C-alpha cells in the first residue's frame, strides 16, 4: 500500500514538473515575421524591375 502511494505521488510530481517545464509564453521579442515566405525583391534581376513596384 505504501509503495503504491509513493508511486502515485512520484507520477503526479513528474507530470506536474513536465507540465511546468514545457510551457512557454510569448514575449515582447516575439514577432510575426513570415520567415518562410520570400521577400518581394528576392528572385528578381537587379535593375530590371518595373518602376513603382
Question: In brief, what are we looking at here?
Answer:
The protein has 53 residues and is mostly helical. It has 1 helix and no strands.
The major β-sheet equals: none
Give a count of the beta strands, DSSP E runs of length 2 or more: 0
Range of helix content:
25-40%
Which sequence of SSEs, written as H and E, runs from N to C?
H
Proportion of β residues?
A: under 5%
> Which outline best applies?
rod-shaped
Residue-averaged pLDDT = 77
Describe the oligomeric state of these chains in a short phrase: single chain
Poorly predicted runs of 5 or more residues: none
How far apart the termini lie comes to: 75 Å
Radius of gyration: 26 Å
Secondary structure category = mainly alpha
* Count of helix runs: 1
Q: Which helices and strands appear, and what pairs or packs with what?
A:
Blueprint: H1 2-22
Describe the model:
The protein is mostly helical. It is 40% helix and 0% strand. The protein contains one helix and no strands. The longest helix is centred in the first third of the chain and has 21 residues, at 2-22. The radius of gyration is 26 Å and the shape is rod-shaped. The model has no long low-confidence stretch (mean pLDDT 77).
Give a quick set of tags describing it.
53 residues; mainly alpha; rod-shaped
